[in-house]
Design goal:
The chain is an alpha/beta fold and 280 residues long. It has ten helices and nine strands. Helix 4 packs across helix 6. The protein has an eight-stranded parallel beta barrel, surrounded by six helices. Helix 4 links the parallel strand 4 and strand 5.
């Protein structure tokens, strides 16, 4: 089976972008906060009505005090699977370098079962050199890490097919990054969701490149949900990005206290956008 076919079976067929609702996620960055605050924020975000709760996969804070409080990704996802009941959960994103692909597939399958089928497998090639150095992983180069990710993705999907029990659903694969030569080609081959950052103009250019890679890989671009990380309020960029095809907007929040009030405007933006889609 080709890698293109493997990616197309990674999740039940998703509707084309024009028929997908706008969704809102929150990334609870597991830094500078204790576990009870992280849990409170996840439960509170679900109660507010967010669609996805993400964490991230690092071993040290990315900003603030570099040796500050921090927690591990996948054990936390297992706990969040029990603490919540409706939202999808996942890492934004897990680092391919830190775990054998078969082990990662098994971990994802287990969290998928704990959550009742709510896991998104967010994954990337890795970039934070301190994590690698402190935990004894070979850093390599950006190119070698992307090559490793390309080899790992079909192994993960194959392992899901061999596990007993299999995942409740085949977790949607989210790939983060905007590299136009390698990363977006991997997205076209394997991903159900593409996560990006940047201004609307940057997103539009990279989304167009992704469409071209989809054509080259024999993939319908509409099969891939477009996602962006956001800050602040929707204001101008929310509608512009939505018009460009973005359907998942994820607000990043850091400890020690997670200000869930920042989600209010994004949830209102989501609901208004979806009313417009329904009305049309």
């Amino acid at each position: 089976m080709s890698s293109t076919n493997e990616s197309s079976t990674a999740v039940d067929a998703l509707p084309p972008v024009a028929h997908r609702p706008v969704r809102v996620g929150v990334q609870l960055q597991p830094q500078h906060a204790d576990w009870q605050e992280l849990r409170r924020a996840a439960v509170g975000a679900e109660e507010l009505g967010v669609d996805v709760v993400f964490n991230w996969d690092h071993f040290f804070p990315l900003n603030g005090e570099p040796e500050g409080m921090h927690f591990e990704c996948w054990t936390m996802l297992g706990a969040l699977a029990e603490a919540t009941s409706q939202v999808e959960i996942g890492a934004l994103v897990t680092c391919n370098s830190y775990r054998n692909p078969e082990l990662l597939a098994d971990m994802a399958r287990t969290v998928d079962h704990i959550s009742g089928g709510r896991l998104i497998l967010g994954i990337g090639s890795g970039w934070f050199e301190k994590d690698y150095a402190e935990y004894g992983y070979e850093f390599g180069t950006a190119g070698s890490r992307l090559d490793d990710l390309g080899e790992a993705l079909p192994r993960i999907v194959r392992r899901w097919g061999r596990l007993n029990p299999a995942p409740i659903r085949k977790p949607p694969v989210l790939i983060g990054g905007g590299g136009e030569k390698k990363t977006l080609r991997l997205v076209a081959r394997h991903a159900d969701i593409w996560h990006s950052f940047g201004e609307p103009e940057t997103f539009a250019r990279k989304s167009s490149v992704l469409d071209q890679w989809c054509t080259a890989e024999g993939r319908d671009p509409a099969e891939i949900e477009r996602s962006v990380g956001v800050q602040g309020a929707p204001d101008e960029n929310g509608p512009r990005l939505s018009d460009l095809g973005v359907r998942l907007f994820t607000l990043g929040l850091s400890g020690p206290r997670y200000d869930l009030g920042q989600l209010t405007d994004w949830l209102a933006f989501r609901d208004e956008a979806n009313r417009g889609t329904t009305a049309s």
